[in-house]
Amino acid sequence: MDIAELREYCLAKKGTTEDYPFDxxxxxxxxxxxxxxxxxxxxxxxxxxxxxxxxRAIELRERYSNIIPGYHMNKKLWNTVEPGxxxxxxxxxxxxxxxxxxxxxxxxxxQRDEILGN
Length: 118
Known about the structure:
By secondary structure, this protein is an alpha+beta fold. The chain has one domain: Alpha-Beta Complex (Aspartate Aminotransferase, domain 1). About 40% of the residues lie in helices and about 25% in strands. The protein has helices at about 5-10, 55-65, 90-105, 110-115; strands at about 15-20, 25-30, 35-40, 50, 65-70, 80. It has a six-stranded antiparallel β-sheet with strand order 1-2-3-4-6-5. The longest helix has 18 residues, at about 90-105.
């Protein structure tokens, strides 16, 4: 998965928006105004920070060499993931989905209902 595929996959999720609040290269993907994915669009190698359940975060870091504690993030709750190699597109989509779902679940019911069109 490359940056374009990541962006397209994330933006296809209900209620997702994107912005560059920090500088012109740091892309934030949000649901309900909260970040679920953050990446630098020019830095190589391409990496993305994704929120993760703390126990699962540890398991992923132990299993995959290209998943490390979140760079400039709460290391307990965020992973930095370098797609490719061991982290194939299927796993990347699962990690993005997990991050999105954690953030979506943290929203107020009213926000979740608005996003879902209820």
